[in-house]
Amino acid sequence: MEDKHCKSLLGSLSDYIDGTAKEEICRELEEHLSGCEDCRIVVDTLKKTVYLYHSNTDTDLPEGVRERLFKKLNLDEHLKTT
Amino acid sequence: MTDNEASQEFSLEALQAGDRAEFAQLVDAYSTQIYRLALKMLGNEQDAEDVLQNTFMKALLSIEKFEGRSSLSTWLYRIAVNEALMSLRRQKPTVPVAMDYEDDDDEIQHPTQFTDWCCLPENELLSAESKGYLDEAIRRLPEKLQVVFLLRDIEGLSIRETSEALDLTETAVKTRLLRARLNLREQLSTYYGERLKEEQA
């Protein structure tokens, strides 16, 4: 990771894991990753980090929050419609 | 990610004419996302509920002036982010300037953790305790990085929508997103690195 090459590739990592990096950059990165264990780990764990957050978005409104919100907005009469 | 119920189309005309039923549907379509955003930023259900209520109160008051330059959802997120930030300021009114050191032309911080924890089983990576840690790690991000990460990676807004919601250039969004992700990766590497050691012991 102290390598100059590693540093120049760091800026492209988000695009790379989102699949929006240019083909040329992907090729360069993949070539580098095959020979640089530290960078491979960084890319793999970065991908996993984003994946874990994507998998952890299940929030529901707690009991009563919707009712109180509708009351506050004077929308009580529409409370039962959905 | 959230391109589910919220992709529903709303009649801006009806909303601006004060159609209550239409507004109620808007509230139902976006409440969960707004609440989640606030909860992740503030870490407290009561504060998140306040932000949710304030967001829609403001939206109700200003929908008339909405010009449609962004989508309705982006506009709502924008109000919600501002409400949540105000709530944060009230909680800790004397945030030291150092917290806000992140500037877009700062160099990207280089990784320091090289533990490969990807092999941990999914039930460990997403255990209740781990999920709690994932949320804490977000709250430890500098504010500027935190809001970008939440809108893009938790709420699933595009780079463009995120830039519209936060009044940033797309380049700034991309830079902050990368920094946020790298920062979280460092934090998670420490946390899961420990889990890995326990497992191997």
Description:
By secondary structure, chain A is mainly α. Chain A has one domain. In chain A, 61% of the residues lie in helices and 0% in strands. Chain A has helices at 4-10, 13-18, 23-33, 37-54, 65-72. Chain A is rod-shaped, with a radius of gyration of 23 Å. Chain B is mainly α and 201 residues long. Chain B contains nine helices and no strands. Chain B has helices spanning 12-16, 20-42, 45-62, 72-91, 122-125, 128-139, 143-154, 159-166, 170-200. Chain B is elongated. The two termini of chain B are 36 Å apart. At the A-B interface, helix 2, helix 4 and helix 5 of A face helix 2, helix 3, helix 6, helix 7 and helix 9 of B.
Please describe the structure with a list of short key phrases separated by commas or semicolons.
heterodimer, A: 82 residues, mainly alpha, B: 201 residues, Rna Polymerase Sigma Factor, Chain: A, Arc Repressor Mutant, subunit A, 2 domains, 66% helix
Major beta sheet summary of chain A: none
Residue runs with pLDDT of under 50 for 5 or more positions of chain B: 1-6
Number of helices of chain B: 9
Oligomer: heterodimer
How is the CATH topology of the largest domain in chain B named? Arc Repressor Mutant, subunit A
Alpha-carbon Rg of chain A, integer: 23 Å
CA radius of gyration of chain B: 19 Å
Helix content of chain A: 55-70%
Total separate domains of chain A: 1
Distance between the termini of chain B: 36 Å
By DSSP, the count of extended strands of chain A is: 0
Mean pLDDT reading of chain A: 90
Order of helical and strand elements of chain B: HHHHHHHHH
Q: What percentage of amino acids of chain B are in beta strands? A: under 5%
Q: How widely separated are the two ends of chain A?
A: 54 Å
Q: Largest interface, counted with CB-CB under 8 A?
A: A-B, 40 and 47 residues
Strand count, sense and barrel status of the largest sheet of chain B are:
none
- Helix and strand content put the structural class of chain A at mainly alpha
